[in-house]
User: Fold this.
Amino acid sequence: MAEMTYAEAIRDGMRQEMKRDRNVYLYGEDVGIFGGCFGVTAGLFQEFGPERVIDTPITETAIAGSAVGAAAAGLRPIAEIMFVDFMGVCMDEILNQAAKMRYMFGGKAKLPMVIRTPCGAGFSAAAQHSQTLEAWFTHIPGLKVVMPGTAADGKGLMEAAIRDDNPVIFIEHKVLLGAKGEVPEGEYLVPIGKADIKREGTDVTIVAWSLMLSKALAAAESLAQEGISAEVLDPRSLVPLDKEAILNSVKKTGKLVIVHEAVRTSGFGGEIAAIVADEGFDLLDAPIKRVTAPDTPIPFSPVLESAYIPSEEKIIKAVKELF
Amino acid sequence: MEPTKDQLLDIFKTMSTIRAFESKAVELFAAGKLPGFVHLYLGEEAVATGVCANLTIKDYITSTHRGHGHLIAKGGKIDLMMAELFGKKTGYCKGKGGSMHIADVDLGILGANGIVGAGQPISVGAAFACKYRKTDSVTVCFFGDGASNRGTFHESLNMASVWKLPVIFVAENNMYGISNSQKTSMNVADIADRAAAYGIPGVAVDGNDVIAVFEAASEAVKRARRGDGPTLIECKTWRWRGHFEGDPSVYKKPEDQESWLKKDPIPRLEAKLVDLKYATQPELDKIKSEIKAQVEDAVKFAEESALPDIEDVLTDVYAN
Ligand SMILES: Cc1ncc(C[n+]2csc(CCOP(=O)(O)OP(=O)(O)O)c2C)c(N)n1
Ligand SMILES: [Mg+2]
Assistant:
């Protein structure tokens, strides 16, 4: 084990796989000497050279589209889109090309590609640089959607994403980049599609991912002091979703609160709520609650932005409504 | 067409206002008073100013993440801009947009923009509206060298050219898109050469020579108002600061930075004004100190303004 930040851990995951497999290469805007807009790729250019760590022009369409072509031709690209907000620019390449090619070709193509991109508010970066858009990608069959909430998961899921033969949308959180954690050294894989119980509890299940995991854990700590034992479950990947783990936890607690930073309407929380209502209705002894951002774009001013982002207090309030 | 004496003095005031506003923003950001990303226009003042000196309030512009200069040149009010940078309720966007999203639709400013290249098709639409309504208004689209590599560039220039729309595409070539030099991002020396692909005029000018910029824009605006369609103007310039405040620009060569600092567009204009006997240096210095005082007033206004109310998070999503 080594102490690493979330950013360092994700970088270490890329490094392990780049050392292991020459077909893996990394490219995107400013990922070279600059080390990526948030420093996640720092040092990789020096380590692997300009053939495998490549700066691109400002050209998201060609970044995502060329990942599709390169993957179809046998490489394993890791493409960086600087902010998840810019995924709109290359949505056709993701929606109509990456996600569907294998199916449309009758199973005859393989697309081992990863698109890494950071999400999240918290820096007053305003409405076009702060969004959390995982739900878009979960609505497209053919894509896997991964959102690590800890440094170790960042590394293990990155390695698993690179080895996966399907397009994986790997969403990092900007606020987590500097968060430290214990991370296994050397090769480390976390299976995609397996949830992790980050804190055990008996009274209520809180499902949260990405940055919201740490807020849910903080809320669980406060709730424990008030005699409420919350179980915190991180699905880690939304597609595929470990619904068994969620249902098993709800079986134990009888109550479910889902927390995500994305806006409420058509957020992935609605999907989890629907699954539990459908397959676990008898397990519930209270309504399912969601804690989410409101249905608005993200405001700039720090006072507005902090009111916007789901907080520990809002999670505690939602939990208490169930008792 | 050459600028008149009055035009040139106005240009001087506008460039000095941008300089003073941006220099103040450097200080304020360093003091931790400005949240979020701040991309400054220092060194590039001649581009927005020389172009917008040809426009009226009825004309439109689309701007970029590096928008303060465009906004000031198009008549934006510096107190409302400053309050927006501070995230205050009195700001242009009530504190909801910040530096990257300042707009004043009444002045024809269709917004700074956080998405590189997004202004290009928007400018085409604004120009279409002007043509459709049979006004003689034009739209200026400001964008960077980096943005000229986006697909929106191709689609916008093509559409504007086949529809003969009154739009002037102004490529601000400051030689870098964040850390990527123009040389590593495109295989042409002049972005203006790309105009040939659309059958429209393309001109490259020294973007630190405000008179050259003014003249090129004057031609293009006339052509657009006549109904002859778009022009691509490339203005070669240099951003003095990092990509955003806080970027130490390790990717730039110090000697390039030094040589461009010597091409500062403001002293060049001052020398011209003195030479033409339009003003004396002490008169120009006095104007500059008055402008600095106005910027201080804008800061005071911003600092004394109230923060937005929390309930404002939920408003302005839809028109009623
Ligand atoms: C679609 C999109 N891609 C990437 C970015 C991130 N980004 C912001 S500014 C910038 C560089 C822009 O370069 P250029 O167009 O030359 O403008 P300059 O900053 O030099 O004024 C980049 C890559 C973005 N905001 N939008
Ligand atoms: Mg540039």
